Amino acid sequence: MLFQQTTANITTALIILVLGLIAGKILGNVLKNLFKDTSLDKVFDETVLKYVSILFISLIYIITLFFVLKQIGVTLRFAQSFGIIVILILLVLTFLSFKDSLPNLTAYLYVRRKFKIGQKLTYEDFEGKINSINFFETRIKTTKKEILAIPNIKLVLKRS
After folding, report:
1. What pLDDT score does 15 carry?
2. Domain containing 114: what range?
3. Ramachandran assignment for 109, one of left (phi > 0), alpha (psi -120 to 50 degrees), beta (any other)
4. d(Cα 105, Cα 153) in Å, to the nearest integer?
5. What is residue 145's DSSP assignment?
6. Backbone angles phi and psi of 11, in degrees to 5
7. Are 133 and 125 in contact (CB under 8 A)?
8. Strand order, beta sheet including 147-151
């Protein structure tokens, strides 16, 4: 009887795990389509959207892992502690990934006021027209029809 119960718990845990992995994958695709449909992919940098997706997918995986651990009999206190530690690690990693982006976000405010789309711009050896301005970079289309992405902070520091 104990063997049957253990086998049933492990089987159920595996099913929960597979469903959680599938749910995470589906959520990733839904978020990608949502970002495109709402034009957030044009407003935010691709890296930011990728991190947001990873954060939500990771949350699904953590919840799944919590249920798997509970199903196989791991104590609730341990599962909660494990979940909290993983969430804290994810938050620290997310913060560290954005620390280099913060200066560009701040510079975005200056760039948005100072420059307009279509305006001519010379940067180092490149000349062209501003194609887009987003939170992290300004893209110019050079006279050679190339797209050049310039971090906003570099534009601000070059102009200062």
Report:
1. 92
2. 103-159
3. alpha
4. 8
5. S
6. -65, -45
7. no
8. 120-123, 126-133, 137-142, 147-151
Maximum Cα–Cα distance for the chain, whole Å? 78
| Residue 13 contacts residue 68 (beta carbons within 8 Å) | yes
Determine contact, residues 142/155, Cβ cutoff 8 Å: no
* Residue in the block written with tokens 């009999």: 73
Assess whether 40 and 66 both reside in one domain: yes
Residues 92 and 134 in one domain: no
Domain count, the chain: 2
pLDDT band at 45 (very low <50, low <70, confident <90, very high): low
Q: How many CB atoms lie within 10 A of CB 144?
A: 9
Q: Are residues 22 and 67 in the same domain?
A: yes
| 82: confidence class by pLDDT, cuts 50, 70, 90 | confident
59 DSSP assignment:
H
Query: Which pLDDT value is given to residue 70?
Result: 81
Q: Which amino acid is at 159?
A: R
Q: Name the residue among 64, 84, 69 with its Cα closest to residue 23.
A: 64
- Sign of the C-alpha dihedral, residues 12, 18, 22, 24? positive
> What is the C-alpha separation between 25 and 61, in angstroms, rounded?
10
Q: Which two tokens stand for residue 18?
A: 């597979």
End-to-end Cα separation, the chain, in angstroms: 77
- 3-state secondary structure at position 160: coil
